[in-house]
Amino acid sequence: MSTDSGSRSFGDLYSVRGLTNTVFFGSPATTLYVDDVPFGETFTYAQLLSAVNSVEALRGPRPMVVGRNTVTGQSLDGNTPPFVPEFDATVALDLHLDAGFFARVEYLALGNTKYDDFNREEFQQDSFGLLNAAVGWCARNWSICLYGTNLAGEEYYTTMNTDVRTGAPGAPREFGVRVGVRF
Q: Over 91-158, what HEC string results?
């Protein structure tokens, strides 16, 4: 292991068996661990080291020892990817009559969704379903429709921000009238 630009500088380059990190802000070719703490980017390398118990250099930007792209040292292997529901499904019944009347009832279901890499319970949305319905009439170039969304009043989050420990609530129950005109 060598350093090209000298100690205690911003642009330290570490090279292990021909793999060299970069002074730019990309993923390094080598990851330096000091006392089990990763220094993944050039600007995070410690300036002064004292009372060091161990130093490890691991090949590649994603060392297999700690899991893919982790900076905490915690393995993420086997975790559910964030923002991806376990499942999603829609069942709908549409009725259109020749006289122009129509009706639609639909049920949308989303499975459990994790909102952070570590799959913590406080940052997940349990499975839920939304019931929506509409009835109306349409003529040649216009239509009118009575609709209702989230008829069961389900409370859910569309996303969560783990940095500020908050989430964006989903749409509440809503009723309305839609009028449309086609030109």
A: EEEEEECCCCEEEEEEEEEECCEECCCCCCHHHEECCEEEEEEEEEEECCCEEEEEEEECCCCCCCEE
56: left (phi over 0), alpha (psi -120 to 50) or beta: beta
pLDDT in the model for residue 108 = 95
| Residue 27 reports pLDDT greater than 70 | no
Task: Please tell me the pTM assigned to this model.
Answer: 0.58
What's the token pair of residue 127? 């499975």
Rounded distance between C-alpha atoms, residue 80 and residue 77, angstroms = 9
Q: Which of 51-60, 63-72, 140-149 has the lowest mean pLDDT?
A: 63-72
Backbone angles phi, psi at 65, to 5 degrees: -65, -35
Angle at 137 between CA 135 and CA 143, to 5 degrees: 110
Closest-CA residue to 102 (of 110, 90, 94): 94
Q: What are phi and psi of 123, to 5 degrees?
A: -120, 55
Distance CA 22, CA 63 (A): 17
161: helix, strand or coil:
strand
Measure Cα distances from 178 to 57, 88, 125, 151, 174 in Å.
Answer: 63, 27, 31, 17, 12
What are the boundaries of each domain within the chain? 2-59, 88-181
Nearest to 8 by CA among 50, 45, 51, 56: 45
